[in-house]
TrEMBL record:
Membrane-topology descriptor: Multi-pass membrane protein
Protein name: Aquaporin NIP-type
Main subcellular location: membrane
One protein family per Pfam: MIP
Any one GO molecular function term: channel activity
Family: Belongs to the MIP/aquaporin (TC 1.A.8) family.
Length: 258
């Protein structure tokens, strides 16, 4: 053990490894996948559970209570697991992050499988402990047309990914407040989109209950809508980030003034 420490210190002195690498051990993919599975499970169990309880027990939680529950559980899981896996819990966020270069594309399929598995397990738990009737379905189904829900999902997921990009992914952001910003955004989106589409913003959130309770009405809107919205939101925010060209322009102007 002593020899290993001495070799690391020697490598550090020679510049072969960075101080960050020596103080922050690498997180293995298996640990990230477990974090995504557990985090998605908790999000779906609490969020969908509040929907089921509200329907089964005469609106005891109320619609505002459901909105707050979704926001709080996402915020809690971000702070609990964000430093492990990035706290995606959402295939749309995972795909967008990879296309923006913030996340390894090789890990995308594994993340998505973990998220779907977490959602299915949570939905199965809820179905097991509650007498879920068709009227108490805790998945997402269109209140009107599927096209209407599709558009709503695009818009609210755009807002969500835009906030994630600004509050959590941008190096200039105060990241300790990122969980609060994302949680509040989800809460507000559920207030607006909930009565229309169910405010999924997350393919895993819709697919899990649909598989467990075998109810797939309008499921395409909840798979493609969030992915399209997240892509637009992520790339829209990218336009606001400084580039190498902008830094060169600033430096050239400063040189000109001198």
């Amino acid at each position: 053990m002593t020899d290993a420490i001495e070799s690391q210190l020697s490598a550090l002195e020679k510049g072969n490894i960075s101080l960050v690498e020596s103080t922050n051990p690498k997180i293995h993919l298996a640990q990230k996948l477990l974090a995504e599975l557990v985090g998605t499970y908790c999000v779906i169990f609490a969020g969908c559970g509040s929907v089921a309880v509200n329907k089964l027990y005469g609106g005891t939680i109320t619609f505002p209570g459901v909105c707050v529950t979704w926001g709080l559980i996402v915020m809690a899981m971000i702070y609990a697991l964000g430093h492990v896996s990035g706290a995606h819990f959402n295939p749309a966020v995972t795909v967008t992050s990879s296309l923006l270069g913030l996340f390894s594309f090789k890990e995308v399929p594994f993340y998505i499988v973990s998220q779907l598995l977490g959602s299915i397990l949570a939905s199965g738990t809820l179905a097991l402990i509650m007498n879920v009737t068709p009227d108490a379905f805790f998945g997402t189904t269109p209140a009107g047309s599927s096209v209407q829900s599709f558009v709503v999902e695009i818009v609210i997921t755009f807002i969500l990914m835009f906030v994630i990009s600004g509050a959590s992914n941008d190096d200039r952001a105060i990241k300790k407040h990122g969980g609060i910003a994302v949680g509040m955004t989800i809460m507000l989106n559920v207030f607006v989109g909930g009565p229309i589409s169910g405010a999924s913003m997350n393919p895993a959130r819709s697919i899990g209950p649909a598989i467990v309770l075998w109810k797939f009405k309008g499921i395409w809107a909840y798979v493609f809508g969030p992915i399209i919205g997240a892509l637009i939101g992520g790339f829209a925010y990218k336009l606001l980030k400084p580039t190498d060209k902008s830094f060169r322009d600033i430096s050239s102007r400063l040189s000109f003034k001198k």
